């Protein structure tokens, strides 16, 4: 039972593409410690996980995420030759059918998502209307997902302007904000060899794991259009690597700038540098990293709550 004087807790779930499955682990670990946020806000993948949490679909989402394989991820890639590589219709239609399909005002707790007005470069707070529509706009990563037309404005990923939506949590009435930053350790990750990956995923034999990694490698290779530099013998970075690294740089620097002016009361920073832009099939790794990050930060949160 919450004390009358207890602060209203806001949870700000940041952007980070496939790394966003770590938010599931964060929410689980907070719940295990008896911490239930009163307000949930999300940017990009943080909006998707946050919506499932507030709607009571987190168990179902986690089960689905842990079952994902490369083949499943590829099946959602409805390629487009327009303003993004992926239309996103398949993913959002699946999300509507299996997780959340209601009005934001009908959710059990206040929820908000962040998107970006592509024409004006302004931050847009989505706090009304359909949950799935808000999530689709918030995850529209430029160059990857096509933009979304909303109230006469073309909207793209909120990570362009507010990767960790602390300000939205404050505006919605949060007294104490727990912020989850998925991009703290990513600079240069895609342009240098990363650490060894974890072992084979649970429920999949080693040969299946190898086939899955090979499938994703071939997909990224075909999308990247790699070219060999015959003069130096060096292979230039692939298109997807350049895109991912550019997004990482942008989001890390914007996050630092926003958090300097709008600091959270508690920062949770899962270590996720080994997860790539499209590694949605590695949900087990991300969820575990989210849990570990909360365990590290928990003494700080307990001091805030006790104070």
Estimate the mean pLDDT confidence: 81
Radius of gyration: 19 Å
Helix/sheet category? alpha/beta
Tally of individual helices? 10
Task: Please provide the ordered H/E string of secondary-structure elements.
Answer: EHEHHHEHEEHEEEHEHHEH
The number of distinct β-strands equals: 10
Uncertain segments are 190-206, 223-232
Helical fraction equals 40-55%
Main beta sheet strand tally, sense and closure: 8 strands, mixed
- Residues in β-strands, percent: 5-15%
Distance between the termini: 17 Å
Q: In one word, what is the shape?
A: globular
Short structural summary:
With 307 residues, the protein is an alpha/beta fold. It has helices spanning 22-32, 45-54, 58-67, 70-75, 89-98, 131-138, 166-171, 206-224, 239-261, 283-306, and strands at 9-13, 39-43, 84-86, 111-117, 122-126, 143-145, 148-150, 153-157, 176-180, 266-268.
Describe the protein's architecture and organization.
- This protein has helices at 22-32, 45-54, 58-67, 70-75, 89-98, 131-138, 166-171, 206-224, 239-261, 283-306; strands at residues 9-13, 39-43, 84-86, 111-117, 122-126, 143-145, 148-150, 153-157, 176-180, 266-268.
- A hairpin with a 4-residue loop joins strand 4 (111-117) and strand 5.
- It contains ten helices and ten strands.
- Mean pLDDT is 81; it is low at 190-206 and 223-232.
- The longest helix has 24 residues, at 283-306.
């Amino acid at each position: 039972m919450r004390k009358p004087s207890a602060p209203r807790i806001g949870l700000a779930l940041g952007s980070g593409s496939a790394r966003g499955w770590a938010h599931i682990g964060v929410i689980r670990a907070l719940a295990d410690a008896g911490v239930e946020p009163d307000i949930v806000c999300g940017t990009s993948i943080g909006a998707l996980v946050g919506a499932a949490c507030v709607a009571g679909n987190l168990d179902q989402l986690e089960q689905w995420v842990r079952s994902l394989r490369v083949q499943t991820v590829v099946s959602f890639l409805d390629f487009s030759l327009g303003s993004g590589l992926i239309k996103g219709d398949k993913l959002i239609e699946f999300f509507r059918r299996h997780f959340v399909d209601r009005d934001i005002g009908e959710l059990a707790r206040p929820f908000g998502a962040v998107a970006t007005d592509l024409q004006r470069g302004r931050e847009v707070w989505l706090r009304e209307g359909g949950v799935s529509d808000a999530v689709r706009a918030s995850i529209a990563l430029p160059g990857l997902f096509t933009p979304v037309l909303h109230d006469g404005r073309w909207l793209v990923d909120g990570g362009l302007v507010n990767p960790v939506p602390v300000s939205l949590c404050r505006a919605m009435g949060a007294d104490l904000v727990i912020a989850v930053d998925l991009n703290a350790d990513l600079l240069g990750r895609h342009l240098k060899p990363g650490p060894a990956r974890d072992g084979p995923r649970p429920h999949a034999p080693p040969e299946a794991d190898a086939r899955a990694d090979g499938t994703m490698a071939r997909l990224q290779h075909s999308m990247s259009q790699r070219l060999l530099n015959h003069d130096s013998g060096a292979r230039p970075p692939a298109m997807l690597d350049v895109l991912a690294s550019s997004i990482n740089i942008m989001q890390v620097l914007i996050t630092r700038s926003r958090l300097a002016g709008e600091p959270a009361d508690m920062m949770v920073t899962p270590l996720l540098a080994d997860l790539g832009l499209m590694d949605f099939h590695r949900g087990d790794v991300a969820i575990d990293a989210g849990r570990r990050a909360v365990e590290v930060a928990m003494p700080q949160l307990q001091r805030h709550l006790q104070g």
